[in-house]
Amino acid sequence: MYDRAVEKTFPDLPPLGALETFECAARHLSFTQAGRELSVTQSAVSHRIKDLEDHLGVRLFVRGRRLRLTDAGQRLFVSVHSAFTSVRDAVEDIVRGAQGRPIAIGCSPSFAVRCLVPGLESWRRVHPDIDVWLSVDETSGPPSARGLDGALRYGPGDARTKLFDERVFPVCDEETAVRLREPRDLLRETLLHDVAHEDDPGRVGWADWLKAAGVQVDPAVLRAGPRYSHCHFALDAAERGQGVALARSSLVRDDLAAGLLTQPFELELTSGLHYHWVSASRRSEIESFATWLVGRFGEW
Q1: Cα–Cα separations (whole angstroms), residue 55 to 5, 14, 79
Q2: 64 to each of 29, 67, 69, 73, how far by Cα in Å?
Q3: Mean pLDDT of the chain
Q4: Domain 103-163+274-297 and domain 167-270 have a common topology
Q5: Is CATH 3.40.190.10 correct for 167-270?
Q6: Model confidence over 112-170: pLDDT tens digits?
Q7: So what's the architecture of 103-163+274-297 in CATH?
Q8: pLDDT at position 22
Q9: What is the pLDDT of residues 212-259, one digit of tens each?
Q10: pTM of the complete model
Q11: What angle do CA 265, 271, 275 make, to 5 degrees?
């Protein structure tokens, strides 16, 4: 009844059920997963998508071994996904009440362990009635596609949403620092490698820092040493005296202040990567959380 009323007002608008099915299928890029979420068969999803394509007169998906969106499908998904996200937020606010509802936040494990989790104590002091549900998120798609209200992402990102400029420099324990009188001395130490974001343009690695310090190094030297999938593993190893790590400023701020790590050289390079906030939600709690993030970490 509601769909017919909408269609009467907007005769070119497809049925809302068809748009919901499309949004779900496009989000998963799978008719089967969409069927599971909507509690219908894969065949039913396929028929609904076909009816929607016939209604619009365009192909929305390229069907093959892997489902993908056409250009028209991508345009429609961006619009429909945003609209459904806004509707879901509004419905949840009405049904459950906006105040006191938990917020789901995604974050990389390194920033979560070293910065966000310790910092959430100050969030709870200001907002004791709003719990944060934190989970690991290293994807690049919309946070809402993973059931998240927002996410802190690390990478090139949108400079308008970045929290701070990231600086990169070597760190180690105090005993190791005594042996490091000049940058060339690093070649006698174990270099710890963080391989996350290794291929991202703008990333600062050991080769970049040593070159800036005027140290000529055989590439074979940089292929040696332990390698870690996340930065906080390398930093933990450095704290234990197992070598020298190339640190991102945001992740070692507190450890440097506490004396757990030492910065043996003043040279710092500005990274082309940074942490940035991503969210399409307009819930008041999410906007408050974004404001808190800037206040807490924006001056780092």
Answers
A1: 17, 7, 17
A2: 11, 6, 11, 15
A3: 86
A4: yes
A5: yes
A6: 988 899 999 999 999 998 999 999 888 777 888 888 999 988 887 666 677 878 899 99
A7: 3-Layer(aba) Sandwich (3.40)
A8: 94
A9: 999 988 888 888 889 998 899 999 999 999 999 999 998 998 899 999
A10: 0.63
A11: 120
Q: Which residue type sits at 81?
A: H
Residue 199 token pair:
């291929």
